[in-house]
Amino acid sequence: MPEGHTIHRLAEDCAAAFAGTTVRVTSPQGRFGDAAALLTGTVLRTADAHGKHLFLGFGGDGDGAADWIHIHLGLFGKVTFGATTGEPPRPAPPTDTVRLRLANTTTWLDLRGPTTCALITPAGKQAVHDRLGPDPLRPHDADPGAAYARVSRSRTTIAALLMDQKVVSGVGNVYRAEVLFRHGIDPYRPGRSLTRATWDALWHDLAGLMREGVRLNRIDTVRPEHTPEAMGRPPRVDDHGGEVYVYRRAGLPCHLCGDEVRTAGLAARNLFWCPTCQRS
Fold first, then answer.
1. Which residues form the catalytic set?
2. Which CATH class name applies to 4-131?
3. What's the CA gap between 222 and 199, in Å, rounded?
4. Is the pTM of this model over 0.90?
C-alpha cells in the first residue's frame, strides 16, 4: 500500500495538472458514473492529502470546494498520468478497469483499482480528517502532542502504534521499520515506555524523511555516512527503490553492526529490525 508521501506527491501532481481548469470527468468502468456526470465540466479547485487519503475538490470558490472526490488507493489502486492528444487511450478489451478518468486540454489521469473512490461533501471530508491521526506532512494542523497522548497511555508496541492510522496518519511499513532503526528503538517496546523527548525526535525525523519522500518520489532513509558510496558497498537492488537500513533486508547483515536483520509478523505486516542496534 502506498505510504503517505506518495499520496501527498500525488496531490501536488494533481494540483499542478488540473487545478483551476475545467475538467472532463468520466468513469469508463461505470462504477463512478453517476458522480462523474455531476462533476464533468466543472472546475477542479484544489487537491489535498491526509495520510493515505487523497481529496480532489470541485466547484465552489477557491479552496472552498463544493464537492470532493475521496480516494484511497488501498493495496491495488494505481494512478496514471498522460499528455492529452485527443482522447486518452482506453484500456485493452475485454475488461475496462478505469474507475475514474480526468482530462483537460493538456493532461489526462486514470485511476484503477482503488479501495475508495467516492463523491463526498465538505462535511464528509471533515469526517475523514476527524477519524485520522495527525499527519507529519500536514504541519498546519498536525499535532505531535495529540499523537503522543495516545502513545503514552498505550501498552501496545510502538511498532503497532506507528501503523495505526488513528494515531499517526501516513506512516506505512517502510517508514515504521526505518525510523525505529534510526533511533535505536526496539519495535516491541510499549508505547507508554517512550518519553516525550523520544517521541518528538521520532516525529521530527518522520516529517523530514517523508518530506524527502515527496520531493524524490521514493523512500531513502540512510544517513549520508551510510550510503553505498560512503560505505563502499553495492547499492540496494529492489523494486522499492531507495536505500534503507532494515526494510526487506531479513537475513542480511546490518549496515552498522553486521548482525542479521530479523523479521516477524506484527500488526498484519512484516516487521524488520536489527536486534543489536535496537536493543530493548
1. 2-3, 52, 269
2. alpha beta
3. 20
4. yes
